[in-house]
Amino acid sequence: MSPAADDEPSVVQARSWLGPLLVLLLAATVIFYVQRWQRGQSRSERSGPAIGTRFGPFELEPLTDGTPPCKSDELRGSVVLVNFWGPWCHPCREEFPYLRAMADRLSGEQRFRLVSVASAGAADDGTDEIERLKLDTRRYLESRKANFPVYCDRAGQLRLQLIEKRRVNGFSFPTTVIIDSTGAIRGIWEGFLAGDELKMEELIRQLLKVDADVAAGTAGDMPGNVGPGTGRLSRSRPQRRSSELPAHV
Question: Could you report the average pLDDT of every consecutive run of 10 residues in the chain (249 residues)?
Fold first, then answer.
């Protein structure tokens, strides 16, 4: 018998394992992406039609007791993180402790504001819907032992404004918007993956430093444009990213 004939069973056996192996690899790939989707997709915008535009004007209704309305005019002069989330939203619940820890790290920054905006996932305009959202939000905060103001975007007006500015067809939860001290949008995060909060914090600290340098009269020494992850500042005035809903939110 020739050597080639002796090798033939090995070749056939190897081929018999190839099919199941490819199936296992394909299944592992599908599981990986399904799990990633369940955790919430993440996309950040560092440029685009919304970046540099003014966010507002707006007035947000409080969902937590003893909280006054949140007005955009009262936020002017602060670096603001606006987080749209919902107690029903799995990626939002996953994001919650990360943003809370980030807010704790920034608690010493007097010119930083976290504006938490809860949503029922549909148009939050009816009295029954708002009361249900209040109850669900309070229960969720109690379960996390969290105590900070939470607001409602009644009728989704602020979400609609963001949809129009971004020129997209829908809105995803969670969505986080970072606004500079002039009221201009500087970064958008849609969805969440662990590590996003570090990029948000980096941008917030850059913007806070910009304001501190402007106040100290040293901002002219810094080159370039400031944006998520760039670490750079413009010498001129600063220019004005799940669970998905359609554009009629």
Answer: 56 62 65 46 73 93 94 96 96 96 96 96 72 94 94 91 92 96 96 94 97 83 40 36 50
- Cα 82 to Cα 113: distance, rounded to the nearest angstrom: 8
The reported pTM is: 0.73
Q: What is the DSSP letter of 68?
A: P
Q: Is residue 102 part of a domain?
A: yes
Q: Which CATH number characterizes residue 125's domain?
A: 3.40.30.10
Residues 6+ apart with CB under 8 A from 11: none
Instruction: Please report whether residue 10 resides in a domain.
Output: no
Residues facing residue 79 across a β-bridge? 112
β-strand partners of 171 = 245
> CA-CA distance, 119 to 174, in Å (whole number)?
10
Number of domains in the chain: 1
The CA distance from 178 to 207, in Å, is: 10
For residue 176, CA distances in Å to 44, 51, 192, 224 come to 9, 13, 9, 25
Residue span of the structural domain in which 242 resides? 42-194+238-246
